[in-house]
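Render this sequence as a predicted structure.
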Amino acid sequence: MSQTNTNKSELLQQLQQLQAQAQSAQLQNPSQAKIYLLQAAELALQLANQEENPQQKKYHYQQALEFKKQAQQLASPPKSPPPPQ
């Protein structure tokens, strides 16, 4: 029983790390940020599958969807040209 709890908190930690990495990578390296976001989405789904509380489960599913949406937005670059370096 305690096994899933440690696992869950580890997953949550990884998820937060990935979110932070994705945010910092978004400007310099969008394709890398996209990878982080997709990994975060996977983790959120894993958390949802482990979650017994229905509200938490729903929250993690929404998180996963949000990450995937962000990753898709990164995949298709914005219409405005990037500022000159």
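Summary. The chain has one domain: 7-75. The chain has a mean pLDDT of 87.
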